[in-house]
């Protein structure tokens, strides 16, 4: 007889307990999956449908993805050849707008989207300062390899910390110290173009302008923000451009199943590029830290130094309260790398494209090219080389400012603006549920005849003679630099840079469209020329001026 209280093994009981545990796990998993794939999307759609918002009916589990792939929206017969591209960028936006109006619902798998062209709601989005209106999480996860956890990607306190850290470096008081660097970099391109022109007997060279402008703006951002030249950072820019081309696919916006963790050929390339970019940026950081230690360039105070000092302070400071951002020591280097990635990416190509599209429009409209050139000569004098490091005189370039604003309206580098609601909130008259992704299609907002008038498709810089507020009925719908609290931090830097570069180019060269130019703007995360912007460039004769 076994001793009383001795443990006994009961195989049948153990098997039952294992089965019950497995069933419980399966049941919980099914509930979680149903909640994510079925119940949450249905709740979001139900909340909006009760407020009269409808859209194409989704099919489980892919939503409206197959329909988005099938839609090919043809431009109207009256559309100008230069405007037809607009209908080929995200054609489902146009097709559904015609059917469901300026606000409608659609879905990509489990993700629910709200297309928005309502000016009152957009106005509220512009005024909204809460951290609960952030970047769509599914997009930011996909862009992690390129942007890391930098300001363009993160939400909440981490975004707020980074904005407060680097924001002051984009104040006009700091930017005015960068103008000499802008002029220095622009003169290198001017000398290159003069060499190209001198090689031709007719004094005219066909130049793909955006290629050199990308080098120019990359050189400016490298010198101004990191104290290095484009030559030292060329590998960073080249690799970021390759990553951008890989990530700028419709599948990211469509929300297809994200396979970024699988060792596909494409993913392996992205992982390799990510490591190489981080290695190059880490070298820039290391060189600066060595210089600081050795007392080299002791007075240097560029953005890189601001980032180094700010992250060090975030580690050493006492972080009290739920709204404090706490940075751990081992996270410091990675955060610095990620912030630098974002500045390298955002600070170069968008400005290069803005200048490129503006030069194209001025080439097509020579009367405006002459007006801008005359204003530059009148403001700065017919000096050679043209020195423009006077911020007061730059501010007096009213005609040039109007031209830039109109160019950003018609061909702004930003194509979409997207926000995810991280909490329930009211925008305009709508109560919007947490988890909805709001999409703004910027070319459509900038071509709305109800806002801009019947001449909306025409290049008419004079519409901005009284500023943005007088140019249209709803100025809050003019968003070339984004909207709300997450508006582009570098918009002041970008505008000054565009003015400086265009002033130097237009005072030295005349531009005409090349007969080889093919107008085909396309989406590659930004609005880029598919076949390049080819212009005929000739030297301005200043002797007779």
Automatic annotation (TrEMBL):
A cellular-component GO term for this protein: membrane
Binding-site positions, heme: 488
Transmembrane segments: 20-39
Compartment list: Membrane
Cofactor(s) annotated in UniProt: heme
InterPro entries xrefs: Cyt_P450, Cyt_P450_CS, Cyt_P450_E_grp-I, Cyt_P450_sf, Cytochrome_P450_Monooxygen
Gene3D superfamilies: Cytochrome P450 (1.10.630.10)
Membrane topology type: Single-pass membrane protein
Family designation: Belongs to the cytochrome P450 family.
PANTHER family, per the entry: CYTOCHROME P450 FAMILY MEMBER (PTHR24282), CYTOCHROME P450 FAMILY PROTEIN (PTHR24282:SF130)
Protein's UniProt name: Cytochrome P450
Provenance organism: Lupinus luteus (European yellow lupine)
